[in-house]
Amino acid sequence: MMLLSLDRPHTATPRAYVDEIIAKHRERSGPECHLYGGHKFTVLPTVYSPFIAPSGGLGLSFAAQPMFRGKRVLDIGCGSGIVSSMIAASGSSMLVGTDINAAAITNCHINARELKVEDISRFYTGDLFEPLVREEEPFDIIFANLPFADALPVDILESAFFDPELRSIKQFITQVGDWLTADGKAYLCLSDYDNDGLDELAESHGLHWKVFIRINHEWSTLYIIELSASSESHPSEKGRL
Description:
The protein is of the alpha/beta class. It contains 6 helices and 9 strands, in the order H-E-E-H-E-H-E-H-E-E-H-E-H-E-E. It has helices spanning 14-26, 56-63, 82-89, 102-114, 167-175, 198-204; strands spanning 32-36, 39-43, 72-76, 94-99, 121-125, 139-144, 180-191, 208-216, 221-228. The chain has a 7-stranded mixed sheet. The protein has a two-stranded antiparallel ribbon with strand order 1-2. Helix 5 (167-175) links the parallel strand 6 (139-144) and strand 7 (180-191). It starts with 13 loop residues before the first helix and ends in a 13-residue tail after the last strand.
């Protein structure tokens, strides 16, 4: 299935628009501070900023959900750690984050200290689930904001946006079930470009797929997809994109 929005024209190609967002990231010469939700957050250079990229709104919307109290939560592609820290501050019992960018992990610790959640937060440098060898328990909630543009990155910053053939998203779908509790749920950020067949891939691995959050943007529609192996989905709940 191609996740393509047909209700309005696109004003730019996906690659051209993402290139503009990356250019805005590259304009940063040092740490930037942002006030959000009553807290001061820091975003370091070379780290994905949810305040520049439109897809950052997905993560911020997710962190505002009232479902984390008492839950073990995993944030894959945790970036600056803003979403992670907000989730931890909302009552999660443990927050674990992973990211391939070592600067992002440094950034996560800065923001965890700001929200005073370092004692219930752990952050690892590495790809997807690979650095979780020290985590012995599964997670109640797993969130992933991974690159969803099919292109080759040239540096660590672009790797937050581009991924050839969406390797990371596909690997996340095939492996996430191994890290969820029996009634756990995973949440995956997507756009309506470059996503052909992902719902079928999820279903082939026993995961039920439905739209959790939908945000219309000027050039696309952005989604958070809920993936669950805990119960049967009804046709009315399917939420096909």
